[in-house]
Amino acid sequence: MTDADPIRAAGCVLWRVSPRVDGIELALVHRPKWADWSYPKGKLKRGEDALAGALREVLEETGMTCAPGAGLPTVRYLANGRPKEVRYWAAESTGGAFVPNREVDRVLWLSPTAARHRLTHDRDKALVDALLNALHLA
């Protein structure tokens, strides 16, 4: 791998049926190192399949197990001057419990509209609509 090769990462737009109102909620994670709100995601291990890595990252960062669904758009951007690409999947939460850890200190479950407003990076906001389209809720 060279500095010109993209950093490979994967994650999920984790969702659940809302326990309070009609509709769904999305899980956003807060990373104190970056002071941002985003989706659970992370770098792939050498030779790791992208979907397996996405599910691993969800479990590590949120404590949640999930059922993966449709693939969502890949997000590409520069990270410290190096290209990075993050593959995403829609994933329904199937259980688990969040425990703060060294990477993630908070998880919020928000409506799609609230999640769109809370996300730190504009590049992540389009994934809300992609999820709603994949779930036929748009």
Quick structural gist:
The chain has one domain: Nucleoside Triphosphate Pyrophosphohydrolase (Alpha-Beta Complex), CATH 3.90.79. It is built from three helices and seven strands, in the order ββββαβββαα.
Describe this structure in words.
The chain has 138 residues and is an alpha+beta fold. The protein has one domain (7-134): Nucleoside Triphosphate Pyrophosphohydrolase (Alpha-Beta Complex). Helices cover 24% and strands 44% of the residues. Strands 1, 2, 3, 4, 5, 6 and 7 form a seven-stranded mixed β-sheet that branches. Helix 2 (112-118) packs antiparallel against helix 3 (122-134). It is globular and about 50 Å long. It starts with 6 loop residues before the first strand and ends with a helix. The mean pLDDT is 95.
Helices and strands, with pairings:
Blueprint: E1 7-17, E2 24-31, E3 36-38, E4 41-43, H1 50-62, E5 64-79, E6 82-96, E7 106-110, H2 112-118, H3 122-134
Parallel strand pairs: 1-6
Antiparallel strand pairs: 1-2, 1-4, 2-3, 2-7, 5-6
Helix pairs in contact: 2-3
